[in-house]
Amino acid sequence: MRAVLGFLGAKLLRALVAVWLVTTVVFVVMRLSGDPVPLLLPPDAPTSEIMRVRRELGLDRALPIQYAVFAGNILRGDFGRSIHFREPAFAVVRGYLGATVELGLTSFFLAALVAVPIGVFSAIRRNSLVDHAAMAVALVGQAAPTFYLGILFILLLSLKADLFPTGGRGDVTHLVLPALTLGAFTMASIARLTRSAVLEVLHADYIRTARAKGVAEWVVITKHTLKNAALPIVTITGLQFGTLLGGAVVTETVFAWPGIGRLAIQSIYNRDYPVVQCAVFFSAVMFIVINFAIDAIYGFLDPRARLR
Amino acid sequence: MVQVTRRELLKGAAALGAAAALPDPLLRRADAQTTQKRELIWAQGGDVSKFDPHFSTSSNDIRVSFNIFDNLTSRHPDGKLYPGLATEWKLTAPTTWTFKLRQGVKYHNGDTFTSADAKFSIERTYDPAAKTMVATALTTIDQIEAPDAATLVIHTKKPDPLLPARLAFYGGQIVPSKYVQAFGNDVFNSKPVGTGPVRFVSWVKDDRLVLEANPDYWGGRIDVDRVSVRSIPETAPRIAALLKGEVDIITQLPADQGERVTGNASTRVAGALYAGLYVLAVNSKRPPLDNPLVKQALSMAIDREAIVKELWRGRGVVPNGPIAKGDNHFDPSLPPLAYNPGAARDLLKKAGYKNEEIWIETTVAYVSNDKQMSEAIQGMWKDVGVNVKLEVIEYSVRAQKNREKSFKGVFWSDPTSTLGDPDGMMWRLLGPGGPQDYWRDARWDELGSAARFSVDEKFRAEAYREMTKIFLEHLPWLPVIQPYEDYGIQKYVEWTPNPNQQFELRRFNFKLRRA
C-alpha cells in the first residue's frame, strides 16, 4: 500500500511541476509576444491614453512582479480578469468548457467505437477487400487536413445532401459533422494501430497454444488477443483523447463551435493574457488527468506495470 | 492480395462523381423570395466582445451596439445626417450647438430618456474616471448643459462644424444614466439597456447572441420578433450557411466569392462603396521614402485598374486622391491615380534612387486581399526597378508597430471616414500627432487645422482642394482602392448596407418581403 501511495505521490508531484512549467512558459511567451493595449484602443488613441490603460492592467510593472502577482493569484484560484471581455478569465473559460467536452467526448467515443472493431476485423481478415478498403480510408483520414475535411463535409453532407446544419452548437445534428471531422484523424490512428497490435499478438505462441487447445475463435480474439494487444491501444487512445480536448482549434473554427481551442487562439491574437493562461492551465490539467487514468488502466491490464 | 478489376474501379469512380453532381436542394427553391420568418439571423466573422458602446470600436461590436442604442444624430446609408434621439440641432453661437431632444422615448428597462442621459453619456466618453475606449472621439467639447429635459446645449472649445456628425458615430451612443450609475459598468456591459430597436435577451460567447424587437421603439417596431447574431469565422462555412438558408445576412463577403452567392437563386449580394480607402501608408521618415519623387514613382508603378479587375472582380474604384468618393469635398474632376511604368522609371532616375530596399509589411486579411495586393504590387514595383522586400506580419504586431510608429516602409491601412468629411479621415490620421504622423508640411498642417475649426464650408472646400494638391505631391499614403464592402443576403431581406460599416436594423432601412 505504501509503495502504491509513494508511486501516486511521485506522479502527482511530477504532474504539479508540469502544470507549473506550462503556466510559466505561457506567462513568459505571452508577454514576449506583444502588448494587448494597442488592440483595445482606437488607432488614433494618444500615447497618454495607452499608458493609462497599461497602468490599469498592471502591464507597466516589471515582469518578475507581474509574475509574482500572477502566481499568488493562481494559488487562490484567481486567474485574473480578461482584458478583452472585462470579466473574470475563469468565468470566460468555464463558459467554453462545456462545448469542448461535449465535442471531445463525442468524437472520442465515435472514434474508439468505430476504430477498434475495424482494426480488429482488419487484422483477423488480413489482406481481404475489407482490410484494404478500411486501411485506405484510414490513410485518407490520417492524411486529409482537418480544415479541408471539415469544409468538404459541409459542402457535401450539409449543403448538397441537406443532412446536417453547416455549423454552430445546438441539437445532436449539430454535433455530427464536427465530431466526424475532429474524430477522423483519431479514428484512423486508432484503427491502424489496433490492426498492427492485434496482428502482432496473433502471431504469438500463446495464441497458437490457445488455438491448439481448441479454444473457440471468438474467445481467442476477445480474451487472449485483445487483452494483450490493449496496451498500445490504450496508450494511443488516451493520448488522442488529450489531443481531442485541447487541439480542436481548426474544427471549432470551421464549424463555428464555441469551444476552448477557438477561445485560446482568439485570445492569443487579442493578447488576452489571463484567458490564454487560464485556458492552457485547464488543457494541461485535463491532459495530466488523462495520463493518470491511462497509468491506472495500465496497472489493471498489465500486472508488471504495477511493480515499476 | 485482392484484385480490383478495372470495371469495379470505374464503377466506384462513377458513384463518387454522381454524388458530387447531386443538385443542391436549395437551387431548386428558386422562388424563395418571400418569407414568413419572424426571426432575422445574421452571421459575422467574429463574435461580439463587449456590449457597452463606449468600450469598443471594433466592427463586430458596433454592428450590435448601434442597434441596441441610439445616437442623437444618425447617418443613413445615403450618407446624410438624420434625426436620432435629437429631433433638430442648430449652431446658436460659433462654439455652441443646441439640440432639441425627442420626448417620450423609453429605455428597454422602462426609464425615460432625458437630456440628463445625453449629458451623462457624452461626458462619460472622455471622463478619465470612466476609462472608456472612445476617450478621443468627442474631445472638441468643452462643457455641456441640460437646461431642461428636452434641450441639450454643447459648448465646444473652438468652432466645431462637425459636432453633429461626430455624435452619429462611435462614442455618440446614448446610455441610460440611472441604470449605469446604479449598477456599474460591469452589469451594464453584461446586461445592456438602450433605447434602440432591439433589446438584449441572451448571449453565449462565440455561439449565438439573441436580441428581440423593442415593441415601443420610437422609430417604429421592426419587422421581426427576434434577431440572432452568429459568429462564423471561416468564409466558406459562412457562405454555406447563407446558401442553405440557415442565416439571412452574412458580413465580409470576399469579392471573389460573390458569384457563389449571386449564382444561387434565393440569395443576392448587397454592397456599399466603403466610406474610406485602402491605402499603403508610408513611413516617410525612412529613406528613400522621404523623397517625394520616389513615392510618386511608386504610386505610378501601381496598376490599380488591374488590381480592381483581377483581385476585386471589379468591386471597387480607383481613388483620385486622399478623399473618399462620397465624402464632403471629394473632387470628381480629378482623374484617377495614373499608372505609367515608364514615367515611374524616369522619376526613380531623377530621384537618384540607388536600389535601396523598400519594404512592404503586409498583414493577412487585416483588410481584404491585403496579401494578394501586396504580392501584385511587389511585382509591379520590381518591374520598374525597385528593390522591394515583402514581409508578412501578424495583426497584433501591426498594432504594436502602429503604436510605436516603427514600420520599415509601407503598410496597409483602411482609413475610415468617420465623419463623412476629410477631417475625420486624412486629418484624423495624418495630422500632427495622429497615428500615421510620419510626414509634415507646414502649409498642409495650417490648412488642416484651419479647416477643422471653420464653420465656413466654402473656405473648407478651398482648404481641402489645396491639401489634396500637396498630398498628391508628397503621398504620405499611396491610395490603392476604394472597395465595395459586400454582404450576402437572402432575396426576401430588404436592407441597404451603410458605407461606414454601421449596420442598422431600423424601419427606414430594413424589412422582410412577405408573401
Core attributes:
heterodimer; A: 308 residues; mainly alpha; MetI-like fold; 79% helix; flat; B: 515 residues; alpha+beta; Dipeptide-binding Protein, domain 3; D-Maltodextrin-Binding Protein, domain 2; Dipeptide-binding Protein, domain 1; 3 domains; 12-stranded mixed beta sheet; 4-stranded antiparallel beta sheet; 31% helix
Written description of the protein model:
The complex is a heterodimer of chains A (308) and B (515). Chain A is mostly helical and 308 residues long. Chain A has one domain (89-307): MetI-like (MetI-like fold). Chain A contains 14 helices and no strands. Chain A has helices spanning 2-33, 37-40, 47-56, 63-75, 89-124, 129-143, 146-160, 173-202, 205-212, 217-246, 249-254, 260-269, 273-301, 303-307. In chain A, helix 5 (89-124) runs antiparallel to helix 6 (129-143) and helix 5 packs across helix 8. Chain A is flat and about 85 Å long. The mean pLDDT of chain A is 84. Chain B is α+β, with helices and mostly antiparallel strands and 515 residues long. Chain B folds into three domains: 2-13 and 275-484, Dipeptide-binding Protein, Domain 3 (Dipeptide-binding Protein, domain 3, Roll); 20-52 and 57-64 and 193-272 and 486-512, D-Maltodextrin-Binding Protein, domain 2 (3-Layer(aba) Sandwich); 70-183, Dipeptide-binding Protein, Domain 1 (Dipeptide-binding Protein, domain 1, Alpha-Beta Complex). Helices cover 31% and strands 22% of the residues of chain B. Chain B is built from 16 helices and 20 strands. Chain B has helices spanning 6-20, 25-28, 59-68, 115-126, 163-166, 177-190, 235-243, 258-262, 292-300, 304-311, 341-351, 370-383, 395-404, 426-430, 442-452, 457-474; strands at 39-44, 73-75, 81-83, 86-93, 96-101, 141-148, 151-156, 198-204, 208-213, 226-231, 249-250, 267-273, 278-282, 316-317, 357-362, 387-392, 410-413, 477-490, 493-495, 510-512. In chain B, strands 1, 8, 9, 10, 11, 12, 13, 14, 15, 16, 17 and 18 form a twelve-stranded mixed sheet that branches. Chain B has a four-stranded antiparallel sheet with strand order 4-5-7-6, covered by helices on one side. In chain B, helix 12 links the parallel strand 15 and strand 16 (387-392). Chain B is globular. The model of chain B is unreliable at 1-28 (pLDDT under 50). At the A-B interface, helix 2, helix 3, helix 5, helix 7 and helix 12 of A face helix 6, helix 7 and helix 13 of B.
